[in-house]
Design a protein that fits this description.
By secondary structure, the chain is of the alpha/beta class. It contains six helices and four strands. Helix 1 links the parallel strand 1 (about 5) and strand 2 (about 30-35). One of its GO terms (molecular function) is ribonucleoside triphosphate phosphatase activity.
Length: about 180
Amino acid sequence: KAAVQIIHGLMEHAKRYTRLAEALCKEGYICYANDHPGHGLTAGDLTEATLKGNGAVLGPSGWRGVVNDVHELSNIIKKENPNIPLFVIGHSWGAMLAQDYIQDWGNEIKGCILSGTNGKVRSLVIKAGKILITGPPRCGKSTLISKLIEYYNNKKDYTIYGFLTPEIRERGNRIGFNIVDIYS
């Protein structure tokens, strides 16, 4: 049928999408996913992937490096499966990565599914984006990222870290989990 590349969200890992991949494979699709730098197996022990202060540290290439990694995996998928179309699925932060990816390489894929993507762009988000893109590299906990997450999750049905699995939320509560600046 087609190949599907799954792009995970911030503070997640590829293994979190196992059920989705299994369901797609059962329907005849071929699925691929990778861990972004500082996430999942690239952060060390998968069960503690983003909870020991190294989660979401993207390295010296930052955002652009992750988008390039997405494209590199797409090239591998197309090389291994030259006669079938490629679709990309991005969730949350992965959807934002996918949006950047399709601006440069959208003509190389058949389609893109964006899940849990950003909504209306407001001035706070635009300003935050400019700061994150052009600001100097820094280390430490990002109050800006935490505020953005809180801003998007301020509905009474949601909690600030409601997108995390219960297991990760519980571990995070035990060790004082906080979002780490992704542009360190």
